[in-house]
Amino acid sequence: MPMKPKPLPSMETLNSLFEFKDGVLYNKPDRPYPAKAGQPVGYEIVGYQFVDIKRQKYAVHRIAFYMHHGWVPDEVDHINGNGMDNRIQNLRPATTAQNAQNRSLLITNTTGYKGVRTHKRSKRFQAQMRINGKQKHLGTFDTKELAAEFLDLARDMVHGDYANHGTFRSI
Fold it and tell me: Is 147 exposed, middle or buried (0-12, 13-18, 19+ CB in 10 A)?
């Protein structure tokens, strides 16, 4: 079970420290080195941007969502899958399941298609996806392309706007 993120500092505190403009969080006053006034904040950790406030680490996308909308959901999803793209039009509230549905193709994938794997004994291609938290086998196909096409339709039906077919989307 994922950990619930720590609460963000107050809106008053955030507004005194930062300005959010065009997907970038900027320092208002000089802050501890190397944060200079007018400079973008943050540092990257595994594809996401973070900033320190009073020795606590916070995700920039959560701060951006909060500063723009005035509230913050349990999870903030990057629509196009790029964790460094913190433009408001790329951020949306999500459940843990929805956030997971929007993941792209894993680096360990060997077929080139999300949810498709080779069935070793039959040499056919299995289509599988998570539905309501459970892994479901949706069928076996002669080609990986047919399995992927079937999965794309199933993902669209089940996951709606959060469906990701294994590629990043531009917005």
Answer: buried
